[in-house]
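Intended use. Records like the one below are meant for learning the mapping from a protein sequence to its folded structure. Do not use them to infer anything beyond what is encoded.
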Amino acid sequence: MSSPSPLQNESIGPAGPETEQRQTRDRILRSLKGPAQFLSFWVAIALPFVHVPLLAQGLDNPAVTVTFLALLGLNVLALYAGHGYNRESTG
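Structure written out for the chain above:
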């Protein structure tokens, strides 16, 4: 009888179609992360310049108010998505 080795490599899973699909999906997501952060960063920088004319016009009109709030929400999402752009990776 031989005892199982105490040093098993459990990080190597079974190779199969699901594993290959997951690896392909992960590779695609990693390749899209940089451009998405780049775009989100610059959208977050540019959107406040669109807010200024809307605020100068006034928010009395409901359509202008809804547009302003939608752009403000988009700006918050862009800030969140682009906050890690061009940072040194620490790990």
